[in-house]
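[SOLVED] Need 3D model of a two-part complex

Original post:
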Amino acid sequence: MILLGIESSCDDTSAAVSRNAEVLSSITASQKEHDQFGGIVPELASRAHDQKIMHTVRMALSEASVSLDQVDAIVVTQGPGLIGSLLVGLTFAKGLALSRGLPLVGVNHIDAHMYAAFIGQEEIPTPFLSLIVSGGHTRLVLVQKPLHHRLLGTTRDDAAGEAFDKSGKLMGLGYPAGPLIDQLAQKGATSRFEFPQALRNEGYEFSFSGLKTSVRYTLEKMTHEEIEASIPDLSSAVSEAITGILIHKLRRAISETGVQKVVISGGVSANSMLRNKAESLAEELHLDVFLPPLKYCTDNAGMICRLGLLHIQQDPTLLTQSPELSMNMTAYSRYPE
Amino acid sequence: MQTYPVDSEVATHALAQKLSLKIQKGDVITLQGTLGAGKTTFVRALVEALGGDPIQVSSPTFSIIHHYDALVSIAHVDAYRLGSEAEAIQAGIEDLFDGDHIVLIEWPENILNLIPDPVIQIQIQWLGEMEREFYISGLEDF
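Solution:
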């Protein structure tokens, strides 16, 4: 089965072509326009998506050596994300589905991150625990079987990626600073500063806003020169606090559910300290840990295809449904709990 | 303008409780203060004081607007990532000023011209790890 996937939930425009579980091509056009504003700017994001989507889809098809006639269905991200950006992808997908008479399958962007680890793999080894960590989301989920998800915990305030970004902003590293903090942390000592790991003794919920306050409090007591000289150590301590609590809650979930397979995905899963901690945990507890390849950690349409395939396998009638029926498919900004 | 010193979670909740009795549907409240000042924390206390489940409240930095169920409908806006008013309009912020919600806006300085008068302004001044000073203006008898 050949699928064309389209993803435009946030700052990247992405298109991919898959054959069964294999992704043949995955093209992402990043919005360089954002850099000068120090973050994702929604209006710019949707306008830039508008300009890039056609080209990105063409490139994905051509790199996969697949023509539109060979495509069996289109899969598109419905949410969560920025409404303006989502609508560009969704509207384009609807137009293409209607004009080519192709079935359209809508999928959840955050759920797609969970299955990114199984690109290229037909079997989904359930049950598994899934930790999804990104700039907008932090979720610990028990996947009993494919598409059967039980939310164990989410964040009460800031997302894990947001905690990296905002701590970096406080340290004067610009916004978003997540990848930069990761680099700097590798040169720093984790032990010189200690930042709090909130809700350590409570369930599966996360809270990262106290970390921000604590970073700020620490910085207020230092001179500008001291801060400059301490950036690697501060980065390391921030990374330790964030990745430490993520792994701590994951360990609790493993112990309480007895599930020995773990998937860690989303943009923050590219963080090297988190990856190292996950590997150590896997060794210690003899776990199977699945991490998507780096190119499928951040937003991409390959994972949209992978989740679309699962939906079609569970409900083959999606393939025979007329495209007119999917015209009232809507975009949503928040995860529908 | 009134000044309220706050040095604990209990004091934050007490202030939110007091404020909740003075506000109603259609009110617009702006919250100013630097990163880590406690804007989202205060919104959570206020949502709880207004009869909503505080668990619903999280940072809207990523998705710009969150909606919460309480005794009145509450919209929680974060303009941190917005660079211009055009972007705010695109995000649907104008639609919130229809009188059906209490609208709470973090980082209002980014979208000042879009916010209708009158507004209740809350400024949170960072003093220390737990200590804050709240400056509240735009409310009579408060």
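Edit: Confidence is low (pLDDT under 50) at residues 32-38 of chain A.
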